[in-house]
Amino acid sequence: MDSKKQEQLLRPHAEIAYQHELEALKKVDNRHRPPGWHLSPWAVVTYLLGGKLENGIEIEPKYFGNRRLIEIAVATLVTDRALLLIGIPGTGKTWVSEHLAAAISGQSTLLVQGTAGMSEEAMRYGWNYAKLLSEGPSENALVASPIMTAMQQGKIARVEELTRIPSDVQDTLITLLSEKTLPVPELNQEIQAHRGFNVIATANDRDKGVNDLSSALRRRFNTVVLPLPNSLEEEMTIVKTRVDKMGRALELPADAPPIKEIKRLVTIFRELRQGKTEDGRTKVKSPSATLSTAEAISVINSGQALAAHFGDGILKAHDLAAGITGAIIKDPVQDKLVWEEYLETVVKERKEWRDLYRSCKELL
To answer: Which residues of 272-308 are buried (b: 16+ CB within 10 A; e: fewer)?
Structure first.
């Protein structure tokens, strides 16, 4: 894709947005590459976690967290085991799966998005009904699913929100993952996976209506749990990095968000998640919202849009307040009480936060 077309995309796929990094890694990557892989496991981990190459090119970190978790995830995909990334919403499961697929296969678009109403066709294959009526069952009438395409091409397939998929549809993966074969009984044949094929699935157990994985399916996966950031500083770094990148992509005519505002927002989210203040002196109630890092990024982006179009371009407390209130109050009764109590017992008592206290109170 040429640079002009790429600039018009709201969110380019990882293999397009970071093409220069993937090519730079490929040039210096002299380590062993598993069959079907574009990069070695070492290069894949470097692409995810960042670093400086021998030729001086800087690789931007895509994931901030425990290096060992990413190494385990990559090592899993070298074997014949599929990878299951689990974590609460906003811990970067989709982000990590996309970048793993881009680095390993050079393509992250072989994606099945899990929904409660999904049918087996989305996992296996479907039919072009016009051709089916005119020709009968044939290879021409067969419509391959992303997983079937990944098997044929020896690439990584991604399955998002695995636990939202009905249990009987989930179990269609069992044969695919254990036998690396997709039977097509209508044609009396089967599709066998080429080297390089594997599956990365993501799931969280916080959503309502979750369908637990059967023990048979769970055994086909190695599970890696992606946690929330360990420290305030780590979470602030993630928010700032992603906000800066998204701000450039959206071309928001606003200054970079002040570190002070990012710190206040991340502190609020962490304290409400943990049920206590950062210093551990005051206990607070937690709302029903997950208040993840992804939501913090969204609040900052929303505040920047307000500052850019209805302010002086600099993110201030009143720009932040609207997004914070919307992120925290999901239940208009219980969450509102939790937020009001936190404002009175924590925010109000911090002298340097008085402007934020007033702005938030005005919206209640």
So the answer is: bbeeebeeeeeebebbebbbbbbbbbbbbbbbbbbbb
Q: Which domain holds residue 298?
A: 232-362
pLDDT in tens, 71-115: 999 999 999 899 999 988 888 899 999 999 999 999 999 999 999
Q: Which of 225, 251, 275 is the last residue of a domain?
A: 225
Q: What contacts 193, CB < 8 A, 6 or more positions away?
A: 151, 154, 176, 180, 181, 182
Q: How many domains does the structure of the chain reveal?
A: 2
**161-215 pLDDT per residue, tens:** 999 999 999 999 998 999 999 999 999 999 999 999 999 999 987 765 578 888 9
Q: Flag whether pLDDT at 247 surpasses 70.
A: no
- Work out whether the CA dihedral 98, 100, 102, 106 comes out positive or negative: negative
What is the predicted pLDDT for the residue at 208?
57
CATH number at residue 46: 3.40.50.300
Residue located via tokens 């901030």:
64
Structure-token pair, residue 211 = 């369908």
Residue 316: closest CA among 281, 356, 350, 361: 356
pTM for the model:
0.89
Q: How far is CA 326 from CA 29, 294, 364, in A?
A: 46, 14, 11
User: Within this chain, do residues 241 and 210 fall inside the same structural domain, yes or no?
Assistant: no
Residue 91 CA, distance from chain mean position:
7
